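A.,

Following up on our hallway conversation. Structure tokens first:
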């Protein structure tokens, strides 16, 4: 007699994206195969593979090169300075390209080529390694910022409103599935294969070369996008500089941009503090950074369908309020995590909220920007966000020096609560205006 009974659970009560597992994911991909949505997902998988072969371990790699807390702050801030300097001039340049897709692919390739330069850093004298690594990462953000801003503009042209939300959510969902695989595999190899720190640095060099090779595949996939004819033509004849005052007077754009900027500053401010806590306080190794990414990726993959439904059902600002509330709460958990095991649980919660923020921010800015001169709007948006990325880490480093890392994280947590309230107030203001009209 069989002593084990089947659990009395109605299979329909289990969400489809969990019940179906890989077969459900395969059907999702099958429905969009051959379309721009499918190409966007595949491009995203290659983009995430390139970045997660090294970015999750960049703070540990920097420490192994001889870097300290100040170098970690620079690693977070200097790319923002580069982005702020190049985005608007780059957007003026892009307006003159007759084939924006080809120009974007060229910038992606330049960015990936710089990974080969980083691969040579461990071969240099120890005194110059930390700063050179930080500088190369910052320089890489020049072609990165331009190519990603151009990609955002292309997405506004390639996809309509409903399809755009689906494409962004699916790209994030499948990206979050591949990220843990890449990061865990890399972390296991870096942790267990080498027996000395010198051998570990050699492995880092190999992974930077691998990232470059995957970057070449990324460019080839990007070139498969089917871009409408009008995107290949020159933008209208408006003066480049004359567009800036127009952007600053666009109320629809500003209602999204201002609260998004306030939140992004608080998000950027938390990055170096969390990295310092993980590397210097709980002493996480590459393997543990891989586990953090695994926990975050699982949470993001599971919650991807939920965020997709909410984006269809509610406004972007509503979804943004929910996601930023979660991330604000997260900032109070980080300083209370005494070890890497607890950090893994917090990373799961982080992944759950991050995918909602990324999807609602990207979809929101594309909705807030007009079809005409979208590239300039996005360049302005990303320029100001890059200023935040540059300033916020120095702000948090000053907090760190003044009150210590634990209290600095609490301060940033309160700032995130304020940013979430601003987003909510703007949402209420927009609703009340609609009611009155």
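Then the amino acids I'd put at each of the 437 positions:
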């Amino acid at each position: 007699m069989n002593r084990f009974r089947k659990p009395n659970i109605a299979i329909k009560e289990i969400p489809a994206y969990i019940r179906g597992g890989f077969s459900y994911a395969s059907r999702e991909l099958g429905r969009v195969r051959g379309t721009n949505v499918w190409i966007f997902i595949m491009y995203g998988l290659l983009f995430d593979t390139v970045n997660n072969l090294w970015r999750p371990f960049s703070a540990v790699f920097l420490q192994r090169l001889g870097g300290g807390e100040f170098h970690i702050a620079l690693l977070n801030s200097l790319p923002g300075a580069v982005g702020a300097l190049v985005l608007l001039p780059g957007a003026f340049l892009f307006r003159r390209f007759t084939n924006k897709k080809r120009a974007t692919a060229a910038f992606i390739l330049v960015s990936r080529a710089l990974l080969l330069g980083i691969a040579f850093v461990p071969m240099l004298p120890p005194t110059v390694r930390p700063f050179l690594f930080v500088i190369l990462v910052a320089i890489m953000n020049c072609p990165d910022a331009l190519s990603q801003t151009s990609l955002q503009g292309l997405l506004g042209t390639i996809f309509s409103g409903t399809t755009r939300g689906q494409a962004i959510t699916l790209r994030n969902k499948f990206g979050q599935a591949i990220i843990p695989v890449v990061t865990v595999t890399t972390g296991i190899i870096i942790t267990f294969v080498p027996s000395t720190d010198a051998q570990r640095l050699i492995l880092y060099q190999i992974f930077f070369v691998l990232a470059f090779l995957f970057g070449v595949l990324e460019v080839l996939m990007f070139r498969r996008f089917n871009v409408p004819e009008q995107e290949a033509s020159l933008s209208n004849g408006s003066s480049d500089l004359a567009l800036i005052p127009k952007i600053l007077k666009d109320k629809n754009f500003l209602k999204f941009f201002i609260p998004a900027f306030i939140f992004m500053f608080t998000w950027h401010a938390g990055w170096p503090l969390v990295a310092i806590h993980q590397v210097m306080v709980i002493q996480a190794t590459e393997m543990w950074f891989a586990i953090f990414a695994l926990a975050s990726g699982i949470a993001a993959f599971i919650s991807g369908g939920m965020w997709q439904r909410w984006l269809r059902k509610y406004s972007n600002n509503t979804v943004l309020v929910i996601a930023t509330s979660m991330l604000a709460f997260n900032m109070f958990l980080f300083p209370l995590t005494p070890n890497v095991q607890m950090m893994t649980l917090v990373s799961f919660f982080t992944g759950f909220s991050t995918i909602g923020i990324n999807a609602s921010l990207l979809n929101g800015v594309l909705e807030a920007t007009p079809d005409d001169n979208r590239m300039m709007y996005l360049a302005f948006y990303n320029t100001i966000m890059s200023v935040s990325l540059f300033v916020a880490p120095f702000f948090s480093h000053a907090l760190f020096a003044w009150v210590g890392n634990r209290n600095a994280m609490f301060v940033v947590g309160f700032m995130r609560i304020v940013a979430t309230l601003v987003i909510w107030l703007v949402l209420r203001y927009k609703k009340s205006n609609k009611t009155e009209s």
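The mean pLDDT is 81. Curious whether your intuition agrees with the design.

B.
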